[in-house]
Amino acid sequence: MTHTYDISGMTCINCETKVQKLLSAVQDVKQVDIDLAKQQARIEMDKHVSTSKLQAALKDYPKYQLRESGNMHMQMESEQEETKTWFQTYKPILLIFAYIIAATLLTELRSNFNWMQWMNNFMGAFFLTFSFFKLLDLKGFAENYFSYDIIAKRWFSYGYVYAFIELALGLAYLTSFNPLLTNSITFVVMSISITGVLQSVFNKRKIKCACLGAVFNLPMSTVTIIEDALMIAMSFISILTLLLHK
Questions:
Q1: Burial zone of 134 (CB within 10 Å; 0-12 exposed, 13-18 middle, 19+ buried)
Q2: Per-residue pLDDT at 229
């Protein structure tokens, strides 16, 4: 891993050489490159070394003050994301799905199990839960959604509207409001949503998924595709069932 630090107090080539030598002697530091003009040090490490430990190496020369550069936190967050396992990365969304599935199954098992009713309850709980996380930081969600959704890119306010569409769909499913209309809207809305997701994933764009709003930092991936595809499939099955039983 490599990090960049700002170092004040260096005024000449001797200072540069001295700072480089002192920092290179710190355990786990692999290489130190000093940019005198920018007053910066680019340090390559075998494993992360704290800023305080690096500053301690310069303690005999108080005029040299080392601090994290402006993009240091972004670098560290990026490295932390890269070291996470698949389960650690998607743990929030997996837990939410598990809770929704368990709660709706237990509710349906109290009486004669009905797959259609269970799907309605699952979709209702799904939309209510996901709209809740979006509404916690509506502005943050809209900004993230704008980066990949095909409608939000043309009309930024759609990000704000979309959160309330999910809320309305959740209430419609749980109250059994006009099932054919509710499922038709779901099919159209989620089909449009998955288009932007597919484009981002296939183009290998490293962007944040807005499915849980701005609360969790989830990367866009096949998990997002599965999430949207599941809603599309369930709404399509419900539409077919309703039309066949008319």
A1: buried
A2: 92
Give the residue among 191, 214, 211, 195 at the shortest CA–CA distance from 203: 195
**Strands (DSSP E) found in 107-164:** none
Kindly state whether residues 66 and 122 are assigned to the same domain: no
- Of 51, 77, 103, the domain-final residue: 77
Pseudo-torsion of CA 156, 77, 220, 204, nearest 10°?
Answer: 100
Give yes or no for residue 238 having a pLDDT over 70: yes
- Pair 165, 240 in one domain: yes
Q: Write the CA distances from 245 to 18, 113, 235, integer angstroms.
A: 83, 19, 15
Could you list the residue range(s) of the whole structural domain that residue 232 is in?
A: 85-244
Of 67, 56, 129, 123, give the one whose Cα is nearest residue 92. 129
Average pLDDT of span 151-177: 94
Shared domain for 130 and 24, answered yes or no, is no
Reported as a pLDDT band with limits 50, 70 and 90, residue 186 is: very high
Judge if pTM exceeds 0.70: no
Instruction: Give residue 58's pLDDT.
Output: 92
Question: Is the Cβ–Cβ distance between 49 and 26 less than 8 Å?
Answer: yes
Which residue type sits at 83? T
Residue 46 has pLDDT above 90, yes or no: no
Q: For residues 174 and 183, give the distance between their C-alpha atoms in angstroms, rounded to a whole number.
A: 12
